[in-house]
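Q: How do we represent a protein-ligand complex in a form that can be generated cell by cell?
A: Start from the inputs.
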Amino acid sequence: MGAVREFPYSFIDRVIIPETDIRTRVQALGEQITRDFQDSDRLLLLGLLRGSVVFLTDLMREIRRPITMDFMSVSSYSKSQSSGFVRIDSDHKTNIRGWDVILIDDIVDSGFTLRTIRKLLLDREPRSLKICALLDKPERHKVDIPIDYLGFSIPDYFVVGYGLDYDEKGRNLPYIASIDLKKGED
Ligand code: IMP
Ligand code: MG
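Then emit the C-alpha cells for the protein with magnesium ion bound:
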C-alpha cells in the first residue's frame, strides 16, 4: 500500500520546502494581501500558466476579499538559456483597466518574464499592479524586479513541485524539491 502514496519521480533529490512550511507561508501571504486590499472591490489575481496554478488556487482561499482570477500563458523563446524574449501564447480575458492586479508566478529566475509582463500590463492601466511569486532565486537575477509578495528565497537549485515542473513533470508534488539530473536518466 505504501508504494501508491509515493510519487514516482526518479529525478527528485531532496525536499527543500516541506508542505507544512508552504501552507503556513501561503496563509501569511493571504493575510497580508487581505490587509493591503481592504479598500478594493476590484482585485484580480492574474496567474502565469502553468507554474502558478497550484500556488494561486491555494492563495486565493486565504484572501478574504472579493476576487476575480484570470490567466496568461507565456513562454521564453529559448528553453535552456533565459533569453530575455518572452512570447505571449494566450492573453488574459479581463479588461484590467482600473483593477488592482496581482501578477502571480511560481518562481523568479532571471526576472525577464515578470519584467516583460509587468511592462505590458502597466500599459493597460490597472489601478495598481503588484507582483507575487512563490519562490525567488536572487543569485540568478539578470534584471531588477520588485517582488511585493514573496513566499521563499532559495539558492540556485533547479526545483520542482507545488506547480513547478521539470520537463512538465513533478507539478503535483505537494512540496518543493531539488532535482538531481543524474537520477533522472532512467
Ligand atoms: P525568468 O524569466 O528567467 O525569471 O524565468 C521564470 C520562469 O522560468 C518560471 O516561471 C519558471 O517557469 C521557469 N523556472 C525558472 N527556474 C525554475 C526552477 O527551478 N524550476 C522550474 N521552473 C523554473
Ligand atoms: Mg513559468
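Strands lie at 12-17, 43-49, 67-76, 86-90, 100-108, 128-136, 149-153, 159-160, 176-179. The mean pLDDT is 93.
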